[in-house]
Amino acid sequence: MFERIDEKRWAAYIEANQPRFLDELYELLRVPSVAAQKRGITEAAALVKRRLIQLGAEVRVFSMNGGSPIICATIGNGDRRLLVYDHYDVQPEDPLDLWVSEPFEPTIRDGKLYARGVADNKGNLMLRLQTVEAWLATQGDLPISLVFLIEGEEEVSSHSLPTFCRTHADLIKADGCLWETGYINIDEYPVITCGAKGIQNVELVAHGARIDQHSSIATIVPNPAWRLTWALASLKGPDERILIPGHYDAVRPPSAADMAALERIPANDDILLADLGISSFLLDVSGWERLRRHLFEPTCTICGLTSGYSGEGFKTVLPNTARAKLDFRLVPDMRPSTVLQNLRQHLSDEGFGDIEVIDLGGEYPSRSDIESPIAQAMVAAAEATYHRPAVLYPTMAGSGPMYVVGEERGIPIASGAGCGYYGMQIHAPNEHIRLKDYWLAMDWMARFIAAFGA
Predict the structure, then answer these.
(1) pLDDT tens-digit profile of 426-444?
(2) Domains defined for the chain, CATH in brackets
(3) Residue range 371-424, pLDDT digits in tens
(4) Nearest 10 degrees: CA dihedral of 104, 107, 112, 117?
(5) Which neighbouring-strand residues pair with 72?
(6) Cβ proximity of 391 and 240 under 8 Å
(7) Which helix (H) or strand (E) holds 135?
(8) Are 298 and 330 within 8 A, CB to CB?
């Protein structure tokens, strides 16, 4: 399957260009392209566009209803057409005091590269472009046609992408889609996923007095912090079951194929617990029951709580507002709009109709066939690169716009060919990758191109 690759020329080119490849990655990492705060988005998009033009790709940039630039680029003339989805936006860098080095100044320590967005998703984005460059320089023409779809709103539920995909469906027609993620698990096995959970993001706001008050009047003035706390407590019980009526009505149980795939995934609870720094998992689950819950159960997560004063020292204050940000991870066949509607109804029925519910966007869950040609090509490429079995997940526990990019268009999706690893700390302080994984992921990507084009 991989006889087309001249391994010697490939390795020599990668080694000779490693310093430049890292400089290109650093340039992108230094751009604080935080979608939630609309920072650095234009600059990051321009940088990605420039790099694609350098490859010789035909590049088009779209803005849907004033949203962040969506880049669509094509290169290669092979019969098989591969869509590659990535994003250039990142999560906020907070809390800054927990970073060992500046989040937007790439820093290498102990063979690891630290920066916000290096694992999610700028590292994968850049190494895939660099792989195409190296292929053209050492192997000749691409055996496939590549379509890069790169957006800047993935971290805020990809608001513009559904409109783009439906308006320009002809541009993203493909035989398969390579998803943004790709990583090595805690056993050092390459991981491939063929699905994603959906998500519904919300903010709940409790209102009190017109402005903050002296805490001595808490006997007669409502405290929105308590109000919000009681409302949040109504959403989930100590047994982790979500208490919103109708929440589980649309949940599709795992299929026989799902469970068969699950049984092939190493559990290794002890290693994971040690890495997380905890003594047990929720509800004391373990083994394949832990994996089943992780991949096939919906969630309700409080992502942030703010109210009153939490700075140094003490301040006796009765806050005038309290806010909580939540995400609901969804499994097939749940729908974000239904989850949001059920949440509003539940709060009203429980006497919390005064709590403001702000819709922060959502995405449908999605699944692809784990036996699809793209999934099998990714498995073959992974095993040829790492010389150990690939681990094939029917879905990942995270979310992304997989439904509108792939499932809605009948395009099978697989993740892989990425530089992440189990300890990369995405969405957290000190996000990083191991440099060795970056170079191996380029080999993985090259072999995948060869396998998919065979």
Answers:
(1) 999 999 999 999 999 999 9
(2) 7-194+368-453 (3.40.630.10), 198-363 (3.30.70.360)
(3) 999 999 999 999 999 999 999 999 999 999 999 999 999 999 999 999 999 999
(4) 10
(5) 60, 149
(6) no
(7) helix 123-138
(8) yes
